[in-house]
C-alpha cells in the first residue's frame, strides 16, 4: 500500500480526502435505519440525502413545508408513515397549511395510494366541486356529514352555517397541484389505510401520511451481502459501499483494488 501511495500521490490524496461520515447509525430511537434511508450524511441513497433528521429519540422527515415525525418504517412494504402535528384531525382543528414535497421526494417517496386527503369545509366555488369534480372519490362511502357529525373538531363547520359544507376525498396529486387557497377548502386532514376504512367511524381512522418508496436498484444487496453499508461520496455523490476495517468499495467490500494487478 505504501509503495502504491508513493507511486500514485494524486490517488493517495483523493483517498484521504474522501469526506463522507465515518459511521452510519442504524437506529434513531427505536426506529431501524436501513437502506435507502440514512441519518448521517453519506449514508443511504443519494436521492434521500437531507431527508431525515434524527433528533434522538425522534426521527423527522423533512420537506419544504415542514418537519414531520416519523411514526414507522415498514421495510417489507417499503413504506414510511409520518404525522404532521399541525394538521387537523378528528379531535383537533388547526389552521390550514399546505403539505409540500420536493420533486425528488415526489418521485422516489410519494404518499401511498391508500393515503387520502380529506378536504374539509370547501366553498361551493371550489374547483373540486366544479371543474375538477372528478378528482374527488368515495372512500368506502363515508360522507362529509359523517365526518362533521362524528368529529368534535369538525362539528364547527356545520354550526356556523347550519348546513353541511362540501368536502372532498382526494389523493396527493390534487394537493400537489393546487394549494389549499386554490382548492378553496378551509381545512384538510389525511388518513392512512383508506382500504381498511369501511364501516369504521372517523373517530377511529388513522390520521397521518403514508409514503411509499421505490428506488432504482443500484446493487445495494451486493454491498450488504459483503458486510458493507450502502452510501455515497458526499462530494462526488457517486455510490459507495462503506466497509468497516477494509477500504470502501464502489460496489462491495473486499473489492480487489487495481493495486493487486501489479503483484
Ligand atoms: C470508508 O468511507 C468512510 C466514509 O466515507 C470513511 O470515513 C472511512 O474512512 C473509509 N474507510 C476507508 C478504509 O477508506
Ligand atoms: C436536525 O434538527 C436539529 C433541530 O432542528 C438541528 O439542530 C440539527 O442540525 C439537524 N441535524 C441535521 C443533520 O440536519
Ligand atoms: C369554512 O369556510 C368558510 C369559507 O368558505 C370560512 O369563512 C369559515 O371560517 C370556515 N369555517 C371554519 C370553522 O374555519
Ligand atoms: C359515494 O357514496 C355515496 C354514499 O355515501 C353514494 O350516494 C354515491 O352514489 C357514491 N358515489 C359514487 C361515485 O360511487
TrEMBL record:
Q: Name one GO cellular component term.
A: membrane
Q: What is its EC number?
A: 2.7.11.1
Localization, per the record, is: Membrane
Please state every residue range assigned to the domain named Wall-associated receptor kinase galacturonan-binding: 24-84
Task: Work out whether the entry's keyword set contains Disulfide bond.
Answer: no
Name the catalysed reactions: L-threonyl-[protein] + ATP = O-phospho-L-threonyl-[protein] + ADP + H(+); L-seryl-[protein] + ATP = O-phospho-L-seryl-[protein] + ADP + H(+)
Tell me which domain of life the UniProt entry assigns to the organism this sequence originates from: Eukaryota
Q: Look at the named UniProt entry and state the broad enzyme category this protein falls under.
A: transferase
- Main localization of the protein described in the UniProt heading: membrane
User: GO molecular function terms here?
Assistant: polysaccharide binding; protein serine/threonine kinase activity
Q: Which keywords, in A-to-Z order, does the entry hold?
A: Glycoprotein, Signal
Q: Where is the signal peptide?
A: 1-17
- Look up and give the membrane topology term: Single-pass membrane protein
What's one Pfam family the UniProt record gives for this protein?
Answer: WAK_assoc
| Sequence ranges assigned to domain Wall-associated receptor kinase C-terminal in this UniProt record | 208-245
The answer on whether this UniProt entry bears the keyword Oxidoreductase reads: no
Q: What is this protein called?
A: non-specific serine/threonine protein kinase
